[in-house]
């Protein structure tokens, strides 16, 4: 790691606004290093973009169908939404991502196996595969410029690929946002790792990151300051937003088995030309603005955004934005929506949303039965946005307003789009969403 702060040439913030309108990335003053990093990240995003996104949705659907359900059906005709009893039976891996690794006793001896398990748009994320295993032994977070070896922050900013694990269960209160560099995996399996009471996790202008098995809640906005964002660079950061996880100009990212709740801003924000992202097996509760994909209705570069949201449980105390989308292509597959107060899926600026095999249980409020919500456009405009539902299950009066032509009429070759598992199985597919209680030597 380079010692001390890097020598920087300060440029007024307006110069950065020319590059990314309306978005300042919380960089206090942009230097040449970050400008170069931004351009490199954009090139990776363009390379990661899939011209025919339905090729990716088809691949994921094939894996879901190949899984089967072990001949078992989950009861789905109940609208009760209390917490499920803790499962104490043999290991069950009920969706294609979990089947890849979960029920193998040797998972701790072969942690890198996880890198082959991503599906959807984030399928190329391999994180720290092939790098060293770095063990977090110290939950403190006292130095933003020269982080202490053994801390999570020290591992997150190293140069080479790194697979970050935890020596024991711990609670980490981040003094400032944790800036994760490229080619990293943060793997919470085998310990109960909670990030709370401080800032959240940020990926800015980076590529190839996996974050798995963390519990993140109670995240607060922080004032910012001088921070190390990589092994050889320190820069000035302005106030952070209070997101649990934030992606800015980053590609090939997989977020899996996270438990997220009760943060000051969003649970997951993906903005500024971030693309090739999968969010899977997460459990989200007690929050207002759950997921934001695209931060501005004027930032048209987000047309490159492609995100898979699969096998997540949207649970108690959620209000809206599951997700809220702009411009890009969003595959929302086999999630279980058991709570919302205002709406579930929303958007503006003409996003394409393919909702397949989800279960939507509407609230008892008669004014909030509608799953979808469009912003900042009259009906004659949003009627052209392609929002389609296939094999979703609608319960307790839930409704989904479709718009735009069927996906088969998109101006590219869709190919064979196999239907995913029906929404009646979403409860089963998401049964083990959230951080898992993995024990070394036993299946998770």
| Level-2 CATH architecture | 3 Solenoid
CATH topology descriptor: Pectate Lyase C-like
Can you give the helix content as a percent range? 10-25%
Poorly predicted runs: 2-22, 69-82, 410-418
- Shape, please? globular
Order of strands in the sheet with most strands: 1-2-5-8-13-16-20-24-27-30
CATH level-4 homologous superfamily: Single-stranded right-handed beta-helix, Pectin lyase-like
Largest sheet: 10 strands, parallel
If you compute it from the alpha carbons, what radius of gyration comes out, rounded to the nearest whole angstrom? 21 Å
Catalytic activity: Eliminative cleavage of (1->4)-alpha-D-galacturonan to give oligosaccharides with 4-deoxy-alpha-D-galact-4-enuronosyl groups at their non-reducing ends
Pathway: Glycan metabolism; pectin degradation; 2-dehydro-3-deoxy-D-gluconate from pectin: step 2/5
Protein name: Pectate lyase
Domain Pectate lyase: 169-366
Write a structural description.
Residues 169-366 form the Pectate lyase domain. Belongs to the polysaccharide lyase 1 family. It catalyses: Eliminative cleavage of (1->4)-alpha-D-galacturonan to give oligosaccharides with 4-deoxy-alpha-D-galact-4-enuronosyl groups at their non-reducing ends. This protein is of the alpha/beta class. It has one domain: Single-stranded right-handed beta-helix, Pectin lyase-like (Pectate Lyase C-like, 3 Solenoid), CATH 2.160.20.10. Helices cover 12% and strands 27% of the residues. Strands 1-2-5-8-13-16-20-24-27-30 form a 10-stranded parallel beta sheet. A 9-stranded parallel beta sheet has the order 3-6-9-14-17-21-25-28-31, with no helix packed on it. Strand 1 (132-136), helix 5 and strand 2 form a beta-alpha-beta unit. The longest helix has 17 residues, at 32-48. It is globular and about 55 Å long.
């Amino acid at each position: 790691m380079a010692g001390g702060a890097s020598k920087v040439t300060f440029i007024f913030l307006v110069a950065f606004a020319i590059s990314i309108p309306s978005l300042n990335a919380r960089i206090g003053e942009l230097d040449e290093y970050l400008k170069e990093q931004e351009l490199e990240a954009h090139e990776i995003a363009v390379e990661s973009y899939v011209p025919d996104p339905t090729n990716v949705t088809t691949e994921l659907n094939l894996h879901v169908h190949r899984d089967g359900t072990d001949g078992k059906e989950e009861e789905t005709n109940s609208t009760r939404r209390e917490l499920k009893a803790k499962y104490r039976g043999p290991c069950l891996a009920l969706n294609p991502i979990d089947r890849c690794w979960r029920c193998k006793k040797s998972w701790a001896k072969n942690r890198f196996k996880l890198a082959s398990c991503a599906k959807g748009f984030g399928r190329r994320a391999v994180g720290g595969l092939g790098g060293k295993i770095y063990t977090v032994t110290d939950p403190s977070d006292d130095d933003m410029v020269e982080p202490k070896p053994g801390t999570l922050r020290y591992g997150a900013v190293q140069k080479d690929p790194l697979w970050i694990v935890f020596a024991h269960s711990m609670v980490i209160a981040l003094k400032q946002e944790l800036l994760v560099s490229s080619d990293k995996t943060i793997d919470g399996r085998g310990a109960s790792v909670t990030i709370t009471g401080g800032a959240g996790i940020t990926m800015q202008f980076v590529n190839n990151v996996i974050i798995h098995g963390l519990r993140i809640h109670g995240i607060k906005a922080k004032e910012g300051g001088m921070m190390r964002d990589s092994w050889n660079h320190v820069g000035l950061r302005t106030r952070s937003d209070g997101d649990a996880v934030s992606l800015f100009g980053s590609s090939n990212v997989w977020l899996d088995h996270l438990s997220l709740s009760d943060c000051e801003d969003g649970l997951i924000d993906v903005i500024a030309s971030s693309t090739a992202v999968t969010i899977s097996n997460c459990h989200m509760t007690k929050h207002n603005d759950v997921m934001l994909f695209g931060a501005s209705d004027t930032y048209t570069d987000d047309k490159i955004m492609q995100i898979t949201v699969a096998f997540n449980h949207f649970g108690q105390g959620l209000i809206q934005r599951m997700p809220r989308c702009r411009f890009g292509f969003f595959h929302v597959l086999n999630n279980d929506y058991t709570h919302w107060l205002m709406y579930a899926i929303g958007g503006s600026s003409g996003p394409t949303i393919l909702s397949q095999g989800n279960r939507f249980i509407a609230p008892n409020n008669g004014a909030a039965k509608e799953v979808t919500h469009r912003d900042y456009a009259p009906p004659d405009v949003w009627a052209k946005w392609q929002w389609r539902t296939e094999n979703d299950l609608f319960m307790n009066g839930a409704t989904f307003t479709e718009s735009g032509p069927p996906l088969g009429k998109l101006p590219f070759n869709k190919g064979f789009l196999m239907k995913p598992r029906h929404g009646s199985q979403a409860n089963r597919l998401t049964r083990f969403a959230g951080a898992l209680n993995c024990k070394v030597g036993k299946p998770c």
